[in-house]
Amino acid sequence: MGNRLTQIATRTGDDGSTGLGDNSRVPKDHLRVQAMGDVDELNSQIGVLLCEPMPEALRELLVDVQHQLFNLGGELSMPGYTLLKPEALLQLDDALATHNATLPRLAEFILPAGTRAASLAHVCRTVARRAERAVVALGAAEALNASLRQYLNRLSDLLFVLARVLNRVDGGDDVYWKSERLTLAAAENGQD
């Protein structure tokens, strides 16, 4: 692994390039740097979500996700290294199964709303989707470990589910989309 940072203002990026963990330099608008930045933003947004009250089990899960995202970002910053372990993806699959089992099936679309914690989880979900798109774009240009893309895809699903869980912490519910078409169809069928 590369050297740890001992100073932050190195001025080496003043020319529009940035250093990767393997000591190579790439332009700051490189697909790899975009993916690294989106993963970093996702990790930061999860940090904001963790400022909210939530059940301890969710907190522990999200803290571990932050560590896994650091591994994922490290793998992006060091071409050829593998840092994200298969167990990380299995943890997301297990969490999805556990939390999905506690939720009612969705009959309608829901809005990214509700409690502050749930709304922040939805923001994290959308950033996860953007990070996934950035990793997909990078993977089309360079060879990447498929688990990076899979982890972000599964994490965005989990964040959606956790938003629903967080809306129910104090007895709340999802905020359902009021579709004009669905309202008309229900009226025609005599449902209100």
From TrEMBL:
<feature type="compositionally biased region" description="Polar residues">
    <location>
        <begin position="1"/>
        <end position="10"/>
    </location>
</feature>
<protein>
    <recommendedName>
        <fullName>Cobalamin adenosyltransferase</fullName>
        <ecNumber>2.5.1.-</ecNumber>
    </recommendedName>
</protein>
<dbReference type="GO" id="GO:0008817">
    <property type="term" value="F:corrinoid adenosyltransferase activity"/>
</dbReference>
<dbReference type="InterPro" id="IPR016030">
    <property type="entry name" value="CblAdoTrfase-like"/>
</dbReference>
<keyword id="KW-0169">Cobalamin biosynthesis</keyword>
<feature type="region of interest" description="Disordered">
    <location>
        <begin position="1"/>
        <end position="26"/>
    </location>
</feature>
<dbReference type="GO" id="GO:0009236">
    <property type="term" value="P:cobalamin biosynthetic process"/>
</dbReference>
<dbReference type="GO" id="GO:0005524">
    <property type="term" value="F:ATP binding"/>
</dbReference>
<keyword id="KW-0067">ATP-binding</keyword>
<dbReference type="Pfam" id="PF01923">
    <property type="entry name" value="Cob_adeno_trans"/>
</dbReference>
<dbReference type="InterPro" id="IPR036451">
    <property type="entry name" value="CblAdoTrfase-like_sf"/>
</dbReference>
<comment type="similarity">
    <text>Belongs to the Cob(I)alamin adenosyltransferase family.</text>
</comment>
<dbReference type="InterPro" id="IPR029499">
    <property type="entry name" value="PduO-typ"/>
</dbReference>
<keyword id="KW-0547">Nucleotide-binding</keyword>
<feature type="domain" description="Cobalamin adenosyltransferase-like">
    <location>
        <begin position="8"/>
        <end position="165"/>
    </location>
</feature>
<keyword id="KW-0808">Transferase</keyword>
<comment type="subunit">
    <text>Homotrimer.</text>
</comment>
